[in-house]
Amino acid sequence: MNAINKPTVKQYDYDKIRQQDKAHFLHPWQVFDVFREEGALPIVEGSGNYIVDADGKRYFDAVGGLWCNNIGLGRVEMAEAIAQQALQLSYANPFVDMTNAPAAELAAKLAELAPGSINHVFFSCGGSTSVDTAFRLIHYYQNCRGKHDKKHIISRINAYHGSTYAAMSIGGKPGDHPPEFDFIKDTIHHLSYPNFYRAPEGMDEQQFVDHLVQEFEHKIAELGGADKVAAFFAEPVMGAGGVIVAPEGYLKRMHQICKDNDILYVSDEVVTAFGRLGHWFASKERFDIQPDIIISAKGLTSGYQPLGATLFSDEIFAVLDAEGSDRCFAHGFTYSGHPVACAAALKNIEIMEREQLLDNVKQVGPYFEQQLKTLEDLPIVGQVRGINFMQCVEYVADKNTKALFPEALDIGKRVSNHADARGLITRAIVHLNVMSPSLTMTTEDVDFIVSTLRESIEATMADLRAEGLLDG
To answer: What are phi and psi of 334, to 5 degrees?
Structure first.
């Protein structure tokens, strides 16, 4: 096959695209009243860390797409790998007793990269379907063991685990549970989340961890004991719930409770895996916990193809695969192990290894943390938090009391609008601005992000003062 050259950028009618989008495309998390007036920003081009809208304006994408553009946009060798695989074998049936080479190779590579005895992979189409797969796998496993009452799932308030029915039910963000949707409520439960910035007044970090651990133990007892609880779901660092880094010792103690009570520990690494924190998988390398199940997506292909993977242990597989059981794992997707998506993931991992992007995260990440922290001198910045290339700024109306602005004010969106105008994309989540840039980010890029964000926050404060919403 001839090498692929980057094509001439197709020209679009900006207004026409916006009109078509408003008329026909229902967006994830669309806010109807706002969208009806403002519509969406059409993006037509991307290269490296930059995206370009249909009107030709260029932005530094500090969101990394949606936590996923780990190697950056517009990589020719990724396009070549995808095109080559599409020409050689664009699709193969993955059901029962058929496979394809990229899927087999990727499964083996993930087993090599994953910690401990996690040597088995189920492929799906993204993070949400990987969480749903874990949910079904857990119940299947417990039933295979004869533990038919072991059905309850425990998660955390403000957790995000995806948007399919089971995944969204396992998630615990109040804003993601509007009354117009239905959720699984009888067997899915939520504990307090480990945000020490919002801990009860008077608690130090150790007391806060003790409090959270006791809450977990009490919940297990409340549900009828360990024989009723199947699994605990946790992100190593909570992502869409506010980039919450738990206090020291919290994850290890929660993991130990799971081990002591025969409860599966599920680590949702859809965001934290594939380099965002500087590791292939953060659970063991960063936090020294060995999950039973790891969920991944996003950075697995750097967003070049939709792909998710549910990874699980030899111990779980041994129960499923018991000889003579005559069992069938009646779960799957048409696109499980899609050869083009798996080829993209293999090339993505190859690029990350060759360019030593995990090392870049470990080198540039602390600088990113340090420089963003300087924003805490601004009156409305309550806290800057995160690890390496996963960061968040939280805004408050009062730094002493940590009181928030009214939710209707949408302070994060106000700041991000000013940042947009200055050529910087950040993700607004009500009181927050979240950043998860490409793993290729440099210190110069960090300087641009921080200086632009400072200007945008200052411009937002000026607006609030002019509207009588902020003193000084």
So the answer is: -50, -35
Q: Could you report the per-residue pLDDT of 295-326, keeping only the tens digit for each?
A: 999 999 999 999 999 999 999 999 999 999 99
Instruction: Give the gyration radius of the chain's Cα atoms.
Output: 23
- Asked whether the beta carbons of 435 and 62 are under 8 A apart, the reply is yes
How far is Cα of residue 339 from the mean position of the Cα atoms in its chain? 24
CA–CA distance, 281 with 454 (Å, rounded to integer): 32
- CB-facing half-sphere around the CA of 439: CA atoms within 13 A: 31
In 73-204, alpha helices (H): 76-88, 101-113, 127-144, 165-170
pLDDT at 15: 87
Name the 3-class secondary structure at 332: coil
- Extract the tokens encoding 275: 């380099």
Residue-by-residue DSSP string for 273-325: TTTTTSSS-HHHHHH----SEEEE-GGGTTTSS--EEEEEEHHHHHHHT-TT-
The strand order across the sheet containing 308-313 reads 118-124, 308-313, 293-296, 264-268, 229-234, 152-156, 188-191
Four-CA torsion 217, 223, 226, 230, nearest 10 degrees: -110
**pLDDT score at 2:** 47
Q: How far is CA 386 from CA 243, 246, 255, 276, 433, in A?
A: 6, 10, 21, 11, 12
Distances in Å between the Cα of 172 and the Cα atoms of 83, 177, 184, 338 are 39, 8, 12, 31
Mean pLDDT for 443-471 is 97
Helix or strand or coil: residue 342?
Answer: helix
114-138: per-residue pLDDT in tens? 999 999 999 999 999 999 999 999 9
What's the pLDDT score for residue 9? 67
Are 307 and 297 spatial neighbours (Cβ–Cβ below 8 Å)? Answer: yes
Helix %, strand %, coil % of the chain (to 5): 45, 15, 40
Percent of the chain exceeding pLDDT 70 equals: 98
Please say if the pLDDT value at position 4 is more than 90: no
Among candidate residues 47, 44, 126, the one with its CA nearest the CA of residue 79: 47
What tokens appear for 259 in the block?
């081990």
